[in-house]
């Protein structure tokens, strides 16, 4: 029996706060992001990035995190749940951070997002729980940095999304490019 990737939780916030409260349903809007979310828009909405270039394309419309990260963090003494790290979509049974750039995720009945890169958490994560940044940015045995705080995506096709909806992964054709930070 194969495991089917699913959505565990969805969240949004109309203000720029660290966490996003879980809600029963979100609506993904093509080219914009999550309807009613502070990070929605065709141009960058993240406060730090907006200061650098307010006309830049918004590559961080949707933030996704694998629920499995929460169990890993619990082993290190942290208590983290869906929406706590600011994600819009919490998934299960997908190793999100290993997917290549350009991967399409078909979410629920009709939404499609394209993965643009890794999220690199800012220092606000340590205000949420002291030491959490170090737990979310580690190194592998070869000394390479591993960012565990999820991935970012843009919305290609609109649609509703709820906890329990399925996720279908569509890898890009050709050479697979590892995710960089966006």
Automatic annotation (TrEMBL):
Annotated MOSC domain residues: 21-170
Judging by the UniProt lineage, the source's domain of life is Bacteria
Task: Give one GO molecular function term.
Answer: molybdenum ion binding
Looking up PROSITE patterns in the UniProt record yields: MOSC
Q: Which InterPro entries match?
A: MoCF_Sase_C (IPR005302), MOSC_domain (IPR052716), Pyrv_Knase-like_insert_dom_sf (IPR011037)
- List the protein's name: MOSC domain-containing protein YiiM
Q: Which organism is it from?
A: Glaciihabitans tibetensis
